[in-house]
Amino acid sequence: MVKRTSFEHDPCPVARALDAFGDGWSLLIIREALLGVRRFSEFQARLGMAKNILASRLRALVEHGILEIVPASDGSAYHAYRLTPKGRGAFPILVALRQWSEEFDAHPDEIATVLVDRDGGRPVRKLELHAEDGRLLAPGDTTLQPRSVRKTKKTGARLSSH
Amino acid sequence: MVKRTSFEHDPCPVARALDAFGDGWSLLIIREALLGVRRFSEFQARLGMAKNILASRLRALVEHGILEIVPASDGSAYHAYRLTPKGRGAFPILVALRQWSEEFDAHPDEIATVLVDRDGGRPVRKLELHAEDGRLLAPGDTTLQPRSVRKTKKTGARLSSH
Protein backbone atom coordinates (compact mmCIF):
# COMPACT_ATOMS: atom_id res chain seq x y z
CA MET A 1 0.00 0.00 0.00
CA VAL A 2 1.39 3.37 -0.96
CA LYS A 3 0.57 6.33 1.19
CA ARG A 4 -0.52 9.34 -0.81
CA THR A 5 -1.80 11.71 1.83
CA SER A 6 -0.27 12.75 5.12
CA PHE A 7 -2.57 13.17 8.10
CA GLU A 8 0.35 14.03 10.36
CA HIS A 9 -1.03 17.45 11.28
CA ASP A 10 -4.70 16.62 10.87
CA PRO A 11 -6.83 17.97 13.73
CA CYS A 12 -8.53 14.56 14.04
CA PRO A 13 -6.75 12.11 16.35
CA VAL A 14 -8.03 9.14 14.35
CA ALA A 15 -6.40 10.52 11.21
CA ARG A 16 -3.17 11.21 13.09
CA ALA A 17 -3.01 7.65 14.35
CA LEU A 18 -3.65 6.33 10.85
CA ASP A 19 -0.80 8.50 9.64
CA ALA A 20 1.57 6.91 12.16
CA PHE A 21 0.56 3.38 11.21
CA GLY A 22 0.65 4.13 7.53
CA ASP A 23 -0.83 0.90 6.29
CA GLY A 24 -1.89 -2.52 7.42
CA TRP A 25 1.63 -3.89 7.43
CA SER A 26 2.67 -1.60 10.27
CA LEU A 27 -0.04 -2.89 12.59
CA LEU A 28 0.90 -6.47 11.70
CA ILE A 29 4.54 -5.70 12.53
CA ILE A 30 3.36 -4.34 15.90
CA ARG A 31 1.26 -7.48 16.40
CA GLU A 32 4.36 -9.63 15.87
CA ALA A 33 6.43 -7.41 18.18
CA LEU A 34 3.78 -7.79 20.91
CA LEU A 35 4.15 -11.54 20.45
CA GLY A 36 7.89 -11.22 21.09
CA VAL A 37 9.39 -10.96 17.60
CA ARG A 38 12.46 -8.72 17.49
CA ARG A 39 14.66 -9.67 14.54
CA PHE A 40 14.33 -8.54 10.95
CA SER A 41 14.60 -12.10 9.68
CA GLU A 42 11.88 -13.29 12.03
CA PHE A 43 9.49 -10.49 11.05
CA GLN A 44 10.22 -11.35 7.45
CA ALA A 45 9.60 -15.06 7.90
CA ARG A 46 6.39 -14.61 9.88
CA LEU A 47 4.84 -11.88 7.75
CA GLY A 48 6.05 -13.07 4.36
CA MET A 49 6.75 -9.48 3.34
CA ALA A 50 9.21 -8.35 0.70
CA LYS A 51 12.41 -7.32 2.46
CA ASN A 52 12.41 -3.80 1.04
CA ILE A 53 8.84 -3.17 2.20
CA LEU A 54 9.58 -4.58 5.66
CA ALA A 55 12.70 -2.41 5.91
CA SER A 56 10.79 0.74 4.98
CA ARG A 57 7.98 -0.02 7.46
CA LEU A 58 10.42 -0.76 10.29
CA ARG A 59 12.24 2.49 9.53
CA ALA A 60 8.97 4.45 9.62
CA LEU A 61 7.96 2.80 12.91
CA VAL A 62 11.32 3.75 14.42
CA GLU A 63 10.93 7.33 13.14
CA HIS A 64 7.48 7.50 14.75
CA GLY A 65 8.88 6.29 18.07
CA ILE A 66 6.83 3.09 17.96
CA LEU A 67 9.84 0.77 17.72
CA GLU A 68 13.37 1.35 18.94
CA ILE A 69 16.57 -0.28 17.77
CA VAL A 70 18.42 -2.28 20.40
CA PRO A 71 21.45 -4.60 20.31
CA ALA A 72 20.66 -8.22 19.57
CA SER A 73 20.26 -10.24 22.74
CA ASP A 74 22.70 -12.88 21.49
CA GLY A 75 25.59 -10.40 21.42
CA SER A 76 25.91 -10.64 17.63
CA ALA A 77 26.41 -7.64 15.37
CA TYR A 78 22.76 -7.72 14.38
CA HIS A 79 20.30 -5.36 15.95
CA ALA A 80 16.77 -5.95 17.07
CA TYR A 81 13.55 -3.96 17.22
CA ARG A 82 11.75 -3.39 20.48
CA LEU A 83 8.39 -1.75 21.10
CA THR A 84 8.48 1.55 22.96
CA PRO A 85 5.68 2.44 25.40
CA LYS A 86 4.05 4.21 22.44
CA GLY A 87 4.24 0.97 20.47
CA ARG A 88 2.90 -1.19 23.29
CA GLY A 89 0.14 1.41 23.62
CA ALA A 90 -1.27 0.20 20.30
CA PHE A 91 -2.51 -2.97 22.00
CA PRO A 92 -6.14 -1.73 22.34
CA ILE A 93 -6.18 -0.90 18.61
CA LEU A 94 -5.23 -4.48 17.77
CA VAL A 95 -7.80 -5.83 20.22
CA ALA A 96 -10.51 -3.61 18.70
CA LEU A 97 -9.63 -4.80 15.19
CA ARG A 98 -9.64 -8.44 16.35
CA GLN A 99 -12.97 -8.17 18.13
CA TRP A 100 -14.58 -6.48 15.14
CA SER A 101 -13.57 -9.44 12.97
CA GLU A 102 -14.74 -11.90 15.59
CA GLU A 103 -18.15 -10.24 15.69
CA PHE A 104 -18.74 -9.36 12.06
CA ASP A 105 -16.55 -11.52 9.83
CA ALA A 106 -18.48 -13.58 7.29
CA HIS A 107 -16.24 -16.59 7.96
CA PRO A 108 -15.32 -16.48 11.66
CA ASP A 109 -14.38 -20.18 11.46
CA GLU A 110 -11.28 -19.11 9.53
CA ILE A 111 -9.96 -17.14 12.51
CA ALA A 112 -7.12 -19.16 14.01
CA THR A 113 -6.68 -17.69 17.48
CA VAL A 114 -8.54 -16.50 20.55
CA LEU A 115 -7.34 -13.76 22.90
CA VAL A 116 -7.59 -15.16 26.39
CA ASP A 117 -6.92 -14.10 29.94
CA ARG A 118 -3.56 -15.62 30.87
CA ASP A 119 -4.65 -16.57 34.36
CA GLY A 120 -8.01 -18.08 33.63
CA GLY A 121 -7.43 -19.23 30.07
CA ARG A 122 -10.87 -17.84 29.19
CA PRO A 123 -11.65 -15.50 26.28
CA VAL A 124 -11.52 -11.84 27.24
CA ARG A 125 -14.60 -9.64 27.26
CA LYS A 126 -15.29 -7.08 24.56
CA LEU A 127 -13.51 -3.76 25.03
CA GLU A 128 -15.64 -1.44 27.13
CA LEU A 129 -15.98 2.32 26.99
CA HIS A 130 -17.03 3.92 30.26
CA ALA A 131 -18.02 7.40 31.32
CA GLU A 132 -15.96 9.11 33.99
CA ASP A 133 -18.53 7.98 36.56
CA GLY A 134 -18.32 4.37 35.38
CA ARG A 135 -21.43 4.02 33.20
CA LEU A 136 -20.94 1.78 30.14
CA LEU A 137 -21.24 3.89 26.97
CA ALA A 138 -22.59 2.98 23.52
CA PRO A 139 -21.59 5.04 20.45
CA GLY A 140 -24.81 7.08 20.68
CA ASP A 141 -24.02 7.97 24.30
CA THR A 142 -20.95 9.90 23.20
CA THR A 143 -20.36 13.10 21.33
CA LEU A 144 -17.40 15.08 20.06
CA GLN A 145 -16.67 18.51 21.45
CA PRO A 146 -14.11 21.10 20.43
CA ARG A 147 -11.14 20.62 22.72
CA SER A 148 -10.86 24.27 23.66
CA VAL A 149 -14.45 24.68 24.84
CA ARG A 150 -15.14 21.21 26.10
CA LYS A 151 -16.60 22.42 29.36
CA THR A 152 -19.66 23.66 27.47
CA LYS A 153 -22.11 20.80 27.59
CA LYS A 154 -23.77 19.14 24.64
CA THR A 155 -22.53 21.39 21.86
CA GLY A 156 -21.14 18.59 19.73
CA ALA A 157 -22.84 16.56 17.08
CA ARG A 158 -24.30 13.38 18.48
CA LEU A 159 -22.59 10.33 17.10
CA SER A 160 -25.08 8.62 14.85
CA SER A 161 -26.56 5.44 16.23
CA HIS A 162 -29.12 4.70 13.52
CA MET B 1 -3.07 4.27 -0.93
CA VAL B 2 -3.01 1.24 -3.18
CA LYS B 3 -3.68 -2.14 -1.67
CA ARG B 4 -1.19 -4.76 -2.80
CA THR B 5 -1.91 -7.68 -0.54
CA SER B 6 -5.21 -9.24 0.45
CA PHE B 7 -5.61 -10.45 4.02
CA GLU B 8 -9.19 -11.49 3.36
CA HIS B 9 -8.56 -15.13 4.26
CA ASP B 10 -5.73 -14.55 6.70
CA PRO B 11 -6.10 -16.63 9.88
CA CYS B 12 -5.40 -13.50 11.97
CA PRO B 13 -8.50 -11.45 12.80
CA VAL B 14 -6.43 -8.24 12.93
CA ALA B 15 -5.28 -8.81 9.35
CA ARG B 16 -8.83 -9.61 8.25
CA ALA B 17 -10.12 -6.36 9.73
CA LEU B 18 -7.33 -4.42 8.04
CA ASP B 19 -8.32 -6.05 4.78
CA ALA B 20 -11.89 -4.82 5.17
CA PHE B 21 -10.82 -1.26 5.96
CA GLY B 22 -8.22 -1.26 3.21
CA ASP B 23 -6.59 2.03 4.04
CA GLY B 24 -6.92 5.06 6.24
CA TRP B 25 -9.55 6.68 4.05
CA SER B 26 -12.07 3.95 4.81
CA LEU B 27 -11.88 4.52 8.57
CA LEU B 28 -12.22 8.27 8.03
CA ILE B 29 -15.33 7.66 5.90
CA ILE B 30 -16.72 5.54 8.75
CA ARG B 31 -15.85 8.32 11.19
CA GLU B 32 -17.87 10.80 9.11
CA ALA B 33 -20.77 8.34 8.79
CA LEU B 34 -20.83 7.92 12.59
CA LEU B 35 -21.08 11.72 12.79
CA GLY B 36 -24.15 11.57 10.55
CA VAL B 37 -22.75 12.16 7.06
CA ARG B 38 -24.68 10.25 4.38
CA ARG B 39 -24.26 11.95 1.02
CA PHE B 40 -21.41 11.56 -1.45
CA SER B 41 -21.03 15.33 -1.79
CA GLU B 42 -20.85 15.78 1.96
CA PHE B 43 -18.21 13.04 2.40
CA GLN B 44 -16.28 14.69 -0.41
CA ALA B 45 -16.47 18.17 1.08
CA ARG B 46 -15.54 17.05 4.60
CA LEU B 47 -12.73 14.69 3.66
CA GLY B 48 -11.32 16.64 0.72
CA MET B 49 -10.81 13.40 -1.18
CA ALA B 50 -10.62 13.05 -4.94
CA LYS B 51 -14.03 11.95 -6.18
CA ASN B 52 -12.73 8.80 -7.87
CA ILE B 53 -10.97 7.65 -4.71
CA LEU B 54 -14.01 8.39 -2.57
CA ALA B 55 -16.22 6.49 -5.03
CA SER B 56 -13.94 3.44 -4.95
CA ARG B 57 -13.73 3.44 -1.15
CA LEU B 58 -17.52 3.79 -0.76
CA ARG B 59 -18.01 0.93 -3.21
CA ALA B 60 -15.59 -1.27 -1.26
CA LEU B 61 -17.29 -0.42 2.05
CA VAL B 62 -20.67 -1.38 0.55
CA GLU B 63 -19.17 -4.63 -0.79
CA HIS B 64 -17.84 -5.43 2.68
CA GLY B 65 -21.27 -4.81 4.24
CA ILE B 66 -20.00 -1.84 6.24
CA LEU B 67 -22.17 0.73 4.45
CA GLU B 68 -25.48 0.21 2.68
CA ILE B 69 -27.08 2.31 -0.03
CA VAL B 70 -30.42 3.86 0.90
CA PRO B 71 -32.68 6.41 -0.82
CA ALA B 72 -31.91 10.03 -0.03
CA SER B 73 -34.02 11.31 2.84
CA ASP B 74 -35.13 14.34 0.80
CA GLY B 75 -36.89 12.17 -1.76
CA SER B 76 -34.51 13.20 -4.53
CA ALA B 77 -33.04 10.78 -7.04
CA TYR B 78 -29.74 10.77 -5.16
CA HIS B 79 -28.89 7.94 -2.85
CA ALA B 80 -27.21 7.99 0.51
CA TYR B 81 -24.85 5.75 2.46
CA ARG B 82 -25.80 4.39 5.83
CA LEU B 83 -23.71 2.39 8.27
CA THR B 84 -24.80 -1.19 8.82
CA PRO B 85 -24.44 -2.80 12.28
CA LYS B 86 -21.06 -4.07 11.03
CA GLY B 87 -20.11 -0.47 10.20
CA ARG B 88 -21.30 0.95 13.51
CA GLY B 89 -19.37 -1.90 15.14
CA ALA B 90 -16.14 -0.16 14.08
CA PHE B 91 -16.71 2.49 16.77
CA PRO B 92 -14.28 0.90 19.29
CA ILE B 93 -11.56 0.84 16.61
CA LEU B 94 -11.95 4.58 16.06
CA VAL B 95 -11.95 5.18 19.82
CA ALA B 96 -8.78 3.09 20.22
CA LEU B 97 -7.04 5.05 17.44
CA ARG B 98 -8.15 8.36 18.98
CA GLN B 99 -7.01 7.46 22.47
CA TRP B 100 -3.65 6.27 21.21
CA SER B 101 -3.09 9.69 19.61
CA GLU B 102 -4.30 11.47 22.73
CA GLU B 103 -1.81 9.54 24.84
CA PHE B 104 1.23 9.36 22.59
CA ASP B 105 1.05 12.11 19.95
CA ALA B 106 4.03 14.46 19.99
CA HIS B 107 1.70 17.45 19.49
CA PRO B 108 -1.53 16.68 21.35
CA ASP B 109 -2.35 20.40 21.33
CA GLU B 110 -3.12 20.01 17.61
CA ILE B 111 -5.98 17.61 18.34
CA ALA B 112 -9.21 19.51 17.79
CA THR B 113 -11.81 17.42 19.57
CA VAL B 114 -12.55 15.47 22.73
CA LEU B 115 -14.81 12.42 22.95
CA VAL B 116 -17.20 13.06 25.80
CA ASP B 117 -20.06 11.36 27.56
CA ARG B 118 -23.22 12.94 26.14
CA ASP B 119 -24.96 13.10 29.49
CA GLY B 120 -22.19 14.43 31.65
CA GLY B 121 -20.20 16.31 29.02
CA ARG B 122 -17.05 14.84 30.55
CA PRO B 123 -14.25 13.08 28.62
CA VAL B 124 -14.72 9.32 28.44
CA ARG B 125 -12.34 6.91 30.17
CA LYS B 126 -9.77 4.91 28.28
CA LEU B 127 -11.09 1.71 26.69
CA GLU B 128 -10.86 -1.14 29.14
CA LEU B 129 -10.19 -4.83 28.53
CA HIS B 130 -11.59 -7.13 31.18
CA ALA B 131 -11.33 -10.82 31.90
CA GLU B 132 -14.52 -12.84 31.96
CA ASP B 133 -14.57 -12.48 35.74
CA GLY B 134 -14.20 -8.70 35.52
CA ARG B 135 -10.50 -8.18 36.26
CA LEU B 136 -8.90 -5.34 34.26
CA LEU B 137 -6.30 -6.78 31.87
CA ALA B 138 -3.01 -5.31 30.62
CA PRO B 139 -1.39 -6.63 27.40
CA GLY B 140 0.91 -8.92 29.42
CA ASP B 141 -2.11 -10.46 31.17
CA THR B 142 -3.36 -11.86 27.88
CA THR B 143 -2.21 -14.56 25.53
CA LEU B 144 -3.25 -15.99 22.19
CA GLN B 145 -4.47 -19.55 21.95
CA PRO B 146 -5.36 -21.64 18.92
CA ARG B 147 -9.11 -21.40 18.50
CA SER B 148 -9.64 -25.12 18.21
CA VAL B 149 -7.92 -26.06 21.46
CA ARG B 150 -8.64 -22.99 23.50
CA LYS B 151 -9.83 -24.97 26.48
CA THR B 152 -6.24 -26.08 27.09
CA LYS B 153 -4.83 -23.51 29.45
CA LYS B 154 -1.73 -21.42 28.89
CA THR B 155 -0.45 -22.96 25.71
CA GLY B 156 -0.13 -19.69 23.83
CA ALA B 157 2.79 -17.32 23.64
CA ARG B 158 2.58 -14.63 26.28
CA LEU B 159 2.06 -11.21 24.75
CA SER B 160 5.27 -9.29 25.29
CA SER B 161 5.11 -6.61 27.94
CA HIS B 162 8.73 -5.58 28.04
How would you explain this protein's 3D organization?
- 2 copies of one chain form a homodimer.
- The first copy, chain A, is an alpha+beta fold and 162 residues long.
- Chain A folds into 2 domains: 13-86, Winged helix-like DNA-binding domain superfamily/Winged helix DNA-binding domain (Arc Repressor Mutant, subunit A), CATH 1.10.10.10; 91-134, no CATH class.
- Helices cover 36% and strands 12% of the residues of chain A.
- The first copy, chain A, has 6 helices and 4 strands, in the order ααααββααββ.
- Chain A has helices at 13-21, 24-34, 40-47, 51-63, 85-88, 91-104; strands spanning 67-71, 79-83, 113-117, 142-146.
- The first copy, chain A, has a two-stranded antiparallel sheet.
- The longest helix of chain A has 14 residues, at 91-104.
- Chain A is globular.
Entry summary:
By secondary structure, chain A is an alpha+beta fold. Chain A contains 6 helices and 4 strands.
Features:
homodimer; 162 residues; alpha+beta; Arc Repressor Mutant, subunit A; 2 domains; two-stranded antiparallel ribbon; 6 helices; globular
Put simply, the count of helices of chain A is: 6
Q: Which protein chains are joined by the largest interface, and how many residues does each one contribute?
A: A-B, 98 and 98 residues
* Oligomer state of the chains in this structure: homodimer
CATH homologous superfamily descriptor of the largest domain in chain A: Winged helix-like DNA-binding domain superfamily/Winged helix DNA-binding domain
Strand-pairing-aware structural class of chain A: alpha+beta
- What would you call the shape of chain A? globular
* Beta strand count of chain A: 4
Low-confidence sequence ranges of chain A? 150-156
Mean pLDDT of chain A: 86
Major sheet strand order of chain A: 1-2
- Give the proportion of residues in helices of chain A: 25-40%
The CATH architecture of the largest domain in chain A can be given as Orthogonal Bundle
Biggest sheet statistics of chain A? 2 strands, antiparallel
Task: Report the sheet-strand fraction of chain A.
Answer: 5-15%
- SSE order of chain A in H/E notation? HHHHEEHHEE
What would CATH call the class of the largest domain in chain A? Mainly Alpha
> The CATH topology of the largest domain in chain A, please?
Arc Repressor Mutant, subunit A
Distance between the termini of chain A: 32 Å
